[in-house]
Amino acid sequence: MERLSTTMAPVDPGEFRDALSRFASGVTVVAGLDEAGAPAGLACQSFASLSLDPPLVLFCVARTSSSWARLRPTGRFGISVLAEDQRGECRTLGSRSADKFADLDWHTGHDPGTVLLDGALAHLECTVERIADGGDHEVVIGRVTALTTPRPDGRPLLYFRSRFGTGRFTGAGHGELTDEHPALWL
Question: What average pLDDT does the structure give for the chain?
Answer without folding.
Answer: 88
